[in-house]
Structures are given as C-alpha cells and as structure tokens.
C-alpha cells in the first residue's frame, strides 16, 4: 500500500499549522496581558499598603510593645501562681467534668458552634 500526499493536502496541512501557531501566539499575548494587569494591580496594592504603613507605624509599634508587656506579665503570673482548689460555679454544678473517655462530646460541641459561626458570618 502506497501513501500519496497531494499538493492540496500539503497546502491544507501547512495552513492548518499556521492557524494553530497564530492562535497560540494570540492566546499567549492575551495571557501575557492578563499577567501584566495582575502585576500592575499587585504593585498598586503594595504601594497603597506601604503608604498606610508609613502613616500608621506608630500604632503598630505601640501594639507590639503592648503584646510584649502582656507576654512578660503572663509569664510572671504563671511563675508565681500556686494551684488551689477548683472554683465552683453553676457550670460545674450542671455539667460536671466529662473525663477523657467522653472528651469527644466537648470537641463535637465546640466544632458545631465554631462551624455555625463561620457559616453564618461569611454567608453572602
């Protein structure tokens, strides 16, 4: 069996490949332009954030100082703490300690409350 390629088939094949290449170039240009737009947006957002930081750095520094003092105080209180009897309140009376074998109840309850908060909070 002999395979014969005619001139018309060769031209059609060349035309097909040139169109495909042209389409690829156009797709790459579209992709490149969207990347450039994204980069410009990132630069603009970063510039805006840096301007805000330049204006409000004093508040951030004050917050960091307060966090450091809080950490020192928490460690100091932990160091001088002497354990005493557990304080009793209505929560301990109505719901005594569950123990390690029933810890899943507490975890499940917490997970339900937390997930419901997230779902309600971020609902459109």
TrEMBL record:
Under Gene Ontology molecular function, one entry of this record is: sphingomyelin synthase activity
The Gene Ontology biological process annotation of the record reads: ceramide biosynthetic process
Recorded GO cellular component terms are: endoplasmic reticulum membrane; Golgi membrane; plasma membrane; trans-Golgi network
Q: Which domain of life is it from?
A: Eukaryota
Q: Which InterPro entries match?
A: Sphingomyelin_synth-like
PANTHER family listed in its UniProt record: PHOSPHATIDYLINOSITOL:CERAMIDE INOSITOLPHOSPHOTRANSFERASE 1-RELATED, SPHINGOMYELIN SYNTHETASE
Report the protein name in the record. Uncharacterized protein
Whose protein is this, by species?
Acer yangbiense
Highest classification ranks of the organism? Eukaryota, Viridiplantae, Streptophyta, Embryophyta, Tracheophyta
């Amino acid at each position: 069996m002999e395979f014969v390629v005619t001139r018309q088939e060769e031209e059609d094949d060349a035309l097909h490949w040139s169109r495909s290449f042209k389409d690829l170039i156009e797709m790459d240009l579209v992709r490149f332009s969207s990347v450039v737009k994204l980069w410009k947006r990132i630069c603009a957002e970063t510039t805006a954030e840096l301007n805000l930081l330049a204006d409000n750095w004093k508040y951030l520094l004050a917050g960091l100082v307060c966090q450091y003092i809080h950490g020192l105080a928490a460690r100091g209180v932990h160091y001088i703490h002497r354990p005493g009897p557990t304080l009793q309140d209505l929560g301990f009376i109505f719901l005594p300690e569950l123990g390690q074998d029933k810890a899943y109840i507490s975890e499940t309850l917490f997970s339900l409350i937390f997930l419901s908060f997230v779902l309600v909070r971020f609902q459109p």
